[in-house]
What we know:
With 243 residues, the protein is α/β, with parallel strands linked by helices. It has a single domain (18-145, 183-231), classed as Decaprenyl diphosphate synthase-like (Undecaprenyl pyrophosphate synthetase, 3-Layer(aba) Sandwich), CATH 3.40.1180. The protein has eight helices and six strands, in the order H-E-H-H-E-H-E-H-E-H-H-E-E-H. The protein has a six-stranded parallel β-sheet with strand order 3-4-2-1-5-6, sandwiched between helices. Strand 3 (106-110), helix 5 (118-130) and strand 4 form a beta-alpha-beta unit. Helix 3 packs parallel to helix 4 (79-102). The radius of gyration is 18 Å and the shape is globular. Bound molecules: farnesyl diphosphate (FPP).
Amino acid sequence: MSLKADELLKRIDPRRLPRHVAVIMDGNGRWAKKRGLPRLMGHRAGAESVREMVRVCGDLGIEVLTLYAFSTENWLRPAAEVKGLMTLLVKTLRRETADLDRNNVRLRAIGRLDKLPAEVQRELHQAMSALADNSGLILNLALNYGSRQEIVDSVNALLREGVTAVEEKDISRRLYTAGLPDPDLLIRTSGEYRLSNFLLWQCAYTELYVCSHYWPEFRRAQFYEALLNYQSRERRFGGLGGT
Ligand code: FPP
């Protein structure tokens, strides 16, 4: 570990860590372009950041890490890039499952999974069942995910139940994230101040952190900086907070 990361780690209060961290991993394409590389190389480098984040979150005892890996809008990208992303996903799951298991990680996925390529669905379900008995970090992958779609799906599920009036808790229990705590911290890389249809319901009181690093540059030290920034905030949830 670099000295800088070590120094930052010492300043983090282990008693005030977020339970759930969500990440919009943006900037893979720009990272690649800056280096004159194809966009897919950016996604590959981004997968290394994913690896490092999973490891660090597990080590810190964070409960849930949700990653926006593929949005419902991402299908609009060139077919070769979509295919490349799906292949990267399959290969990463195949390569990393044993290591995730050694690190006690569980795997979950949110989104319209039934519309993903069959191979991705198969690999995902295999990895999820291989890791089902673990008790550490929940790695939650948002795949073919759109938040408005999720809310619509929740309401439709409630209608099918025969519910005639809904409360907030009803919508929550039918979201793809049912059973997970809402994110305490949402990180977006590469400088854009947007939610991009990600966890709109769940982020009602979430602390937002935007940094200028491209996702492949977002590693241990950058995550510690985000955690320190989070710990410097006072969360009031609409109240007045402590005095
Ligand atoms: C955004 O960068 C990134 C994505 C749409 C895909 C994220 C995927 C990975 C990090 C790959 C592997 C993931 C897992 C879970 C193994 P962008 O392409 O929008 O970048 P740009 O805005 O600079 O074009």
